[in-house]
Amino acid sequence: MIRLYGIGNCDTCRKARRWLSSAGIDFEWQDFDRHSVEVETVARWLDTAGLETLLNKQSKAWRELTDDQRAAVTASPASAMAQQVRLIKRPVLETSNAVIAGFSTARYAALFDA
After folding, report:
1. Could you tell me the domains of the chain?
2. Identified catalytic residue from 10, 65, 72, 111
3. How does pLDDT run across 64-80, given as a tens digit for each residue?
């Protein structure tokens, strides 16, 4: 099962959804604003993709954190990111063997041999 996680009004998420659809790839969409993400799911992403890939340090949510709050996020990233989904780089594409944070046509094409 291929799942794409993100925020419905995010331009990058829209681009990823359009790319998958135009490539004829069936996927399940999960909007962070409508459905929360489980801590276990974020932990699985972190195990696969890593904190530096998944944590969106360019986000407004990250920039608004104090140094102590940032330290808390990096100390316990899975629970912090599940509680504050705007800290997650989006979209997150999850397949049975890969997790990709962010959208790149080249990475998607390589993953799906498209």
Report:
1. 3-112 (3.40.30.10)
2. 10
3. 999 999 999 999 999 99
Cα separation of 60 and 56, whole Å? 9
Task: Label the pairing between strands 92-94 and 99-101.
Answer: antiparallel
**HSE-up (13 A, CA, CB side) for residue 109:** 5
In the predicted model, is pLDDT for residue 114 greater than 80? no
Residue range 20-37: average pLDDT?
95
- Torsions phi, psi for 97 (to 5 deg): -130, 10
68 membership: H or E segment, kind and range? helix 67-75
Whole-number pLDDT of residue 13: 97
10 an active-site residue? yes
